[in-house]
From TrEMBL:
Protein name, entry field: GNAT family N-acetyltransferase
A Pfam cross-reference name: DUF4081
Domain of life, source organism: Bacteria
Domain N-acetyltransferase: 138-280
InterPro entries for this protein: Acyl_CoA_acyltransferase, DUF4081, GNAT_dom, UCP21603_acetyltransf
Length: 280
């Protein structure tokens, strides 16, 4: 344990870590999902979870893999985690979480990780508990294994449009295709397909716990935008997720994305927090 009371968590810390995520099970759904799936074993995490202790009590944590995500933190905690990160070198390519915590983390870094590739400082975090305010699209359904050939290009297009770089860049094509297939096999992929089997609208669940699920990858084919497909489609997805995965459906969206924000509001999503995302 270092001078800030930080050490790497392991299987024996799982119960205490889940007690931290339980402080806000919707905001912390990503971290809880990762913990339940890996039991905090670094071999399966593809990274580490750091815990900060006061005496023997776990008071804050930080998921550190491709995404660095604060859990149960206040600004002082994340500044401590930032100092720990500076001592151990950059491992994450993205810092994401509640706005004030990401801001405090990056302030403590003070440019040591170099210039960020993208900074999104105001991302409304939205929650849905139903019922929908609009009629769900009856043509939205779970994607199947035989849909992957059509679904995969739509997923690549959405990711590239949202992040600014293809998920298949740098030799990542095989891994990304495997991720698409994994979500389909879990029943976590929904889409509306046209008569030729091409994707018109799609969305996925990225992570889930018994209490909440986080939706990602919402996309409408460019030539069909502005026709209401996202509104009815998200109503269908949100209700399906609420029935089959978890009772609360969440997502976060860029503040400048007015069409998406308007669509989610029409469905019945309400803002509960502000996130920020910084990418290197």
């Amino acid at each position: 344990m270092d001078d800030d009371g930080i050490r790497v968590l392991g299987r024996g810390d799982l119960a205490d870590f889940l007690a931290l995520t339980a402080q806000d099970r919707v905001v912390n759904v990503f971290a809880e999902h990762r913990a339940r799936a890996t039991a905090l074993d670094p071999r399966w995490l593809g990274g580490e979870v750091w815990g900060r202790f006061e005496g023997d009590v776990l008071v804050a944590a930080c998921h550190v893999a491709a995404n660095l995500v604060p859990v149960g933190c206040d600004p002082d905690d994340v500044r401590r985690f930032a100092r720990h990160a500076l001592r151990h070198g950059r491992r994450a390519s993205t810092v994401v979480g509640e706005h004030d915590l990401v801001a405090a983390f990056c302030d403590e870094l003070d440019g040591a990780w170099g210039p960020a590739r993208d900074e999104r400082w105001s991302q409304p975090h939205l929650e849905y508990v139903g019922p929908p305010r609009v009629a769900p699209d009856p043509l939205v359904r779970h994607s199947r294994a035989d849909d992957v050939e059509a679904l995969h290009p739509a997923c690549v297009a959405m990711y590239t449009e949202e992040v600014g770089v293809s998920p298949e860049a740098g030799g990542g094509a095989e891994a990304y295709l495997a991720r698409v297939r994994q979500l389909v096999s879990r029943g976590w992929s929904w889409a509306r397909y046209d008569a030729d089997g091409q994707v018109e609208f799609k969305a996925e669940v990225a992570c889930a716990s018994p209490w909440a699920a986080q939706v990602q990858g919402v996309w409408v084919r460019p030539d069909l935008r502005g026709q209401g497909l996202a509104v009815a489609g998200m109503a269908a997805v949100a209700e399906s997720v609420r029935r089959e995965v978890a009772p609360v459906v969440s997502l976060y969206v860029n503040e400048w994305n007015a069409p998406a924000r308007a669509a989610y509001e029409k469905v019945g999503f309400v803002e509960t927090a502000r996130f920020a995302t910084v990418m290197w």
